[in-house]
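Entry 14. Ran structure prediction on the chain below.
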Amino acid sequence: VDLRSGSISGFEGLARWIHPVRGVLTPATFLSQIGRLGLQRAFSEAIARQVIADFAAFDAVGRPDICLSFNLEDGLLATANGVAALEELIRTHRSVASRLTLEITEGVFVSRASAAIQAHAVRLAALGVRISVDDFGTGYGTLRHLRAFPFHEIKIDREFISAIGADRSTEVIVDGLISIGTGLGAEVVAEGIETETQERYLIQRGCRFGQGYRYGTALPLEDALDLVRRNGAVSRTG
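Output, structure tokens:
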């Protein structure tokens, strides 16, 4: 959400398992099983295909400006075969590449495969997609790694945003993260916004985008389409 106008600029694709008995299950319930079965790559590729397919649905309701993102499993980006499959998918849908953001965690900077991940991220960025550093500030990334990495966006972790208005020391960290991101020419997205106080603070500090329960919970695609079809803005709560 654009924090100043309340207009919807994009959506993050979230995985949900519609279980016939247990209802809607979040990744916390099933990701460990995917890992045990060695299906991480297949799972990531399935999410990528679905998110890219969803662009057509937003275009059909008159919102060809909507951007979509999804979290990219580190292992997919670390292997030549994995990144090749993703490259082929993006090349096949080159028209939406500039509206697609691949979110990676800060931990990739210190991964044993960090050099390969960086090289593969450069290849993907060359195709026109955007690279986002998710949960920024919580991992072990350093400014040296950040300077060399081809990223376009940083997402400030909800742990920091939740303390705005309650902990001045954390607010100082948030100020620094916003300054780092904007200073390096990246968009800054605040995760986990829940209150007007948090939103107002972030606007005053120059953070342009945000997401969180203040603007809504996870939605099925059809509900998201209805939302942007009506007016393209959110009703703030909290």
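The beta strands are 10-12, 17-19, 23-25, 67-71, 100-105, 130-136, 153-156, 187-190, 209-210. Will compare against last week's run tomorrow.
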